[in-house]
Amino acid sequence: MCCSCAAGAYPWLTACFIAVGGVFEGSGAAPALLRATLVGTAVQLPLAHGLTGLGMPGSCLASAPAMAVRCAAGPVLLRRVPRQDDADAFLARAA
Fold first, then answer.
1. Distance in angstroms (rounded) separating the CA atoms of residues 35 and 25
2. I want to staple 64 with a disulfide (CB 3.0 to 4.6 A). Which of 10, 46, 57, 74 is the partner?
3. What values do phi and psi take at 24, rounded to 5?
């Protein structure tokens, strides 16, 4: 993947993540969004460090795959968050 390809994909992936993030925030699943962001950062930092030999293009190349991981991790992590109805039912049973 060339640097211009990665730079071209990055804005689209960022827009996807922001849109999905808005859905998470609106549904009250902000912790899932935080975990997706942390997973993406955990991918981006070592990847950027490994590509430092390429200079600035290496940093650009690390951004797009990390954002792709964030976009992919968001929906997966959202499935793991209990729905509000389930939480209310759990609290009702506990009382």
1. 13
2. 10
3. -60, -45
